[in-house]
């Protein structure tokens, strides 16, 4: 039976916008600025949301479902306005209402800053998961931090990245609710006083600490068309009391100042590192801050209508998004033992049944390890608990393996202990302290089991499982690509919106000439839309009829933007030296932020921009290739880019990209992948068929063999392959920069050992030729219009598996065991 769409009162909305403009700004519509109109409209939408939000809370209070707390340092939500409208099924009426008021919905949407409380894939995954949880009707809280400054805004000046603070809260956030009545205290430092109380119990009390007040802000997460509204709860820090004279009187002036400083610093800024840990003290404080507040809240919520804390896990699950929230394990133990007097064994039983951990990377620089002295100084009671968890776990290792033939027990301890070499190993704590460990794509999970976490897997295989990532089709098709979304609905109906496996039905159309033409026409329109954006932002005119070849993602050596640009450099040379050779026009589109301190990544950005400058202005090239670097790549412009991509560049060194999710977003929008057999690419190829993707390069097995044996020598390739030599030499021969030494560091990284790293750590030279070959195949395929249309359509038709709805349902069925909420949708 077809569900009735949610109701939305268009006239009420209109009146509400006018009223808000008046009461918020004392202005008429004519006088109001675009930003003020956006705010007025957003508040009007929030009114509609709040009703559903209250209904959801009421249903939850009555039905008492199990709740998942998705704990994450990052939620890369992107703009809320358009997405909220889509999920409220109110996009069209609001568009009409704004039209009638003489306003363009796109311009109103453009006034919203991108909430960028995340770096990249990991943070965006958390946002997609919340969308799916609400859409599937599960009760969920995202728990995170309300950073004052999110991911920095990127400006390109003279080809270099410049970081500018992201002041996303400058005009306030109309969708949030400040919940000061739910504030919690979080304690840092001091020491632990141990004594026996009047009942003979051993009491551990933290004393001499600093304390901050954690204040939650709630953001609504709207399910698609079902009236369910979940909550993203992000915490801000405030000093516990404003500057207090009495503490001054007591001689605590110093402490009062320190507490105030701590509070003002805690949530200032998101660390802008992707797949890399900076190891800063403030970061550990951020982690404990939002975890302590969230765990306290979850326990209190449970106790609102249950009295046996030993059964917390029946109604509560904590999913730890990477190791960043892992102190949750020890914090829950602390609360259970110190506040509710559970024995160690009882507390441990509850904790391990409540916590689950997702691993998102095998990059060694991303492995979180804290120095013991820092950890102990900042979190003295938590450290005691971690120490005891470790002691018992090491005991368990010894019991398991002592006396087993051929097993080196000390080696097992070395590889698995939580405390070792004066470090606290957060991944180990997360594995030991929970009941589920998952990787984010099949290949990644296999690598965890067979290599990175082999010893853990052997000791506790039952904990390990795979959950291949997914993305939400509501944002990345409905909102990003309305033309294609409408076309799909016209062909197969609209069930795909909440069941992406329906896309399979598009397979009936892949050989249909009319459908092919329509599909490619939509792609062309989206390319025109992006071309306008590029002209406006880069001042570069690109040809929408050329192949749009896109690599947008964080800049990281393992993602190999350098491989991509080196082949562009090579082709530039090739065209210059063979001016009459046939060449299908191509536009290379890059977008990437580099961590502020990551010099190689920043130099790669400069290189891309320098290459763009030379090629785009060289009359000999006759527009056969253009290179564009899109400034400030973020969720909002990503939506335009995905819709317009012909070719999806997914070229990480095999074994390094845990999953990738941009690959899925491009596939959904009908882009064809050129990629390595890495992360979720493997599963994409499996769905779409090898003939509809362009796969090249070393396999993960081969990469790992080379890494183990240390027998890779890029210099041999440089000396024997003239194409590779040419491309590399162009880095240092002045073609792309007057200063020939400017790009020398990149050249050196590829040919020599640098700072303890192997030469060409990411096998760029090794994969160069097979990458060129794959690109050649792409140009040939694209030249055959029908063939390309079929391939592109097949990609959209085969993307069903990659919805985050599927991922979330797997978590629910296999790990979380949540109950569906029953909400009367109005
Ligand atoms: C990442 C992985 O690098 C990426 O491949 C994956 O898709 C994503 C979500 O699981 O997680 N791991 C990581 O540390 N970051 C990622 O984006 C920052």
TrEMBL record:
Taxonomic path: Bacteria, Bacillati, Bacillota, Clostridia, Lachnospirales
Necessary cofactors: pyridoxal 5'-phosphate
Record's GO cellular component terms: cytoplasm
SUPFAM superfamilies for this protein: UDP-Glycosyltransferase/glycogen phosphorylase
Full protein name: Alpha-1,4 glucan phosphorylase
InterPro entries in the cross-refs: Glycg_phsphrylas, Glyco_trans_35, Pyridoxal_P_attach_site
Gene name per UniProt: glgP2
Biological processes, Gene Ontology terms: glycogen catabolic process
Purpose: Allosteric enzyme that catalyzes the rate-limiting step in glycogen catabolism, the phosphorolytic cleavage of glycogen to produce glucose-1-phosphate, and plays a central role in maintaining cellular and organismal glucose homeostasis.
